[in-house]
Design a protein that fits this description.
54% of the residues lie in helices and 11% in strands. It is an alpha/beta fold. The longest helix is centred in the N-terminal third of the chain and has 23 residues, at 17-39.
């Protein structure tokens, strides 16, 4: 979290055309790939309906499924730690690393570890941490946070990556994707083999068996979870499915929505540590189940946001995200998802601006694989923010005036006539390109249509009058 406000971060993001272009191209490519796959999959709607039911039923009995999952993890030889917050989760992993003499950690991509800033906690304790997902690896080299939940460096061009590798890895400059992949692979291979601990997230935990499901498009996830002698998996407490049959529904819905693939390259199912006689796998498995505000969210009026399966589809389709990118949100969870989840988990007082980072166009609801009604959740948070007096004074004042006027038809009609006349005084060819503060926040970036000379009500009344006369 920076000291800048959301609006200041947004301003800075809009002033960087390279980032804007990279994000728009990347996000729209994801949307196009998804649309292409869905067009050949007539059962997608029924899959989404079933996926929503699974998420609802899981959260409705979350305590039951969490207990079942934890019991089965331990029956399989793993250990479970229940972390109430980020400090408890970080403390457990740091103390485990110290107790086992861990000096090097290799990580697979995990939004939960970004949420709790686990890397920082380990580094303060003297443990070296290397991100092995290509995007996360690039972001780590650049000293940046991910800007997208499935494509961490969507904001970077391949030329920027090539320059970064040249400077940080002391290699010849190239911007060819295959060559850049080879450079990263070569650099990471020894790290996989020499690390004492591997850390991953969890896409889904299967309650009936204690299995961890990890979905990646790179082999790094498998390396992180099998090569080091200790595997630590961090999982948000809501990331469960009751059965393998349910997992069979959730995986294709996740993968199609995330990248447009019917099946990702690596679908890893991990059940316990290495058993006697098995040739590979970790000696120890530790599963950290994180609350960090999720219990409170589950009890709130925006509990539906916990249905989210972190596919990133709502980011890709969002016109706001496409314009400003992920870093402007100031949170590890950007886009429509983050505009609800971040203030819910981290506190509305600190993050009250994010629910306003939306046009309420409804594209996020339309594309969401589990049909989360994100616009409604945003409105609820906006209402809560307004009631807590977090909204700017001018917005609260204008909305109170509007509330009074809207409940009195004659006042409303008079107000609309005044607005129509005044807007047309300043319009050029029916468009306003400069409004006074604070409304210039709109016209600084786009033109605003002047209000019509006649309202719909006036036009309707005149038409009815003409029809009766004729």
């Amino acid at each position: 979290m920076t000291n800048l406000t959301f609006y200041e971060r947004t301003r800075d993001a809009l002033e960087d055309p390279t980032v804007n272009q990279a994000i728009r191209v990347g996000a729209r490519r994801f949307v196009s790939h998804r649309a292409s796959t869905v067009s050949g999959l007539p059962e997608m709607d029924s899959l989404r309906d079933r996926a929503r039911v699974i998420r609802a039923e899981t959260l409705n009995k979350l305590d039951v499924f969490l207990a079942e999952f934890a019991d089965n993890v331990e029956l399989n030889g793993g250990r479970v730690f229940w972390a109430k917050n980020a400090d408890e989760a970080n403390d457990y992993v740091v103390k485990l690393a110290a107790a086992r003499g861990v000096r090097h950690v290799v990580k697979s991509k995990s939004m939960v570890t970004e949420e709790i800033e686990l890397n920082h906690a380990l580094e303060v304790a003297g443990v070296r941490v290397i991100e092995s997902d290509l995007g996360e690896f690039i972001a780590q080299l650049a000293g940046e946070r991910p800007s997208h939940i499935i494509a961490p460096v969507l904001h970077k061009t391949r030329g920027e990556v090539g320059k970064l590798f040249e400077e940080e890895l002391n290699v010849a400059y190239t911007e060819e994707p295959i060559a850049l992949n080879d450079i990263a692979r070569s650099h990471l291979r020894d790290i996989f083999l020499s690390s004492d601990m591997g850390i991953s997230g969890v896409n889904f935990g299967v309650a009936e068996s204690g299995t961890l499901s990890l979905v990646t498009n790179e082999g790094n996830g498998r390396f992180c979870t099998t090569t080091p002698r200790i595997h630590v998996a961090l999982m948000g407490m809501e990331r469960l499915v009751p059965t393998f049959a349910d997992l069979g529904t959730m995986l294709p819905v996740l993968e199609i929505s995330a990248t447009g693939q019917r099946l990702t390259v690596y679908n890893n199912l991990l059940t316990g540590p290495r058993r006697s006689g098995e040739p590979d796998g970790p000696e120890e498995l530790h599963v950290v189940i994180l609350d960090n505000g999720r219990s409170d969210t589950l009890a709130s009026e925006v509990a539906e946001i916990l249905y989210c399966i972190r596919c990133g589809a709502c980011l890709n389709i969002c016109p706001v995200y496409q314009s400003i990118g992920g870093h402007a949100y100031g949170s590890v969870y950007p886009g429509p998802l983050g505009s609800v989840l971040t203030p819910t988990l981290m506190g509305l007082e600190q993050w009250h601006e994010l629910p306003h980072a939306s046009t309420l166009c409804g594209a996020c609801k339309e594309i969401c694989p589990v049909r989360i009604d994100i616009p409604s959740l945003l409105l609820r948070l906006r209402d809560a923010s307004s009631k807590a007096n977090h909204s700017p004074v001018w917005i609260r004042t204008l909305m109170r005036i509007y509330s009074i006027v809207a409940r009195h038809p004659k006042l409303f009609q008079l107000g609309m006539r005044f607005a129509s006349v005044s807007s047309r005084l300043f319009a050029k060819e029916d468009w306003l390109n400069r409004l006074p503060p604070p409304l210039n926040g709109w016209t600084d970036h786009r033109n605003f249509r002047a209000l019509a000379k006649k309202s719909f009500g006036q036009q309707w009344a005149e038409r009815r009058s003409t029809e009766h006369t004729s």
